[in-house]
Amino acid sequence: xxxxxxxxxxxxxxxSRGPLWLIAISLAVIASCLLMRLDGAPSPAxxxxxxxxxxxxxxxxxxxxxxxxxGLFMVDVDTMNIWCYEYLVxxxxxxxVAGRSWMYDRYLENFGTDPPPEDIQQMIExxxxxxxxxxxxx
Length: 138
Fold this sequence. Notes:
- About 30% of the residues lie in helices and about 20% in strands.
- By secondary structure, it is an alpha+beta fold.
- The chain starts with 17 loop residues before the first helix and ends with a helix.
């Protein structure tokens, strides 16, 4: 078959499978490269994997600060810091609301608890003693 310039076209005609095999092999190579991802670089089209127990890094999540105000909470588990930005409606800006380290919080015992753990311990001991006294009674 010839085009208007007189050159012959290489079209797949019945019985000629050369171009079809070339296309099939090319598609197979492309599919293999996509599956193997030879370069090893992460694709920006893939989402961040879900956090697992013991995961490291900085995590961000939205949250409600008050009835009408929302914020962005950030947690850096490597440096043991947490901070929060308030989203300012109408200005499309973030304002730093709070931030702190919890590095030494894990060493606290019985801080800010109500009732204090000693009171709970006393209540349980009193309840156990009452059960023991009443156990023999019908």
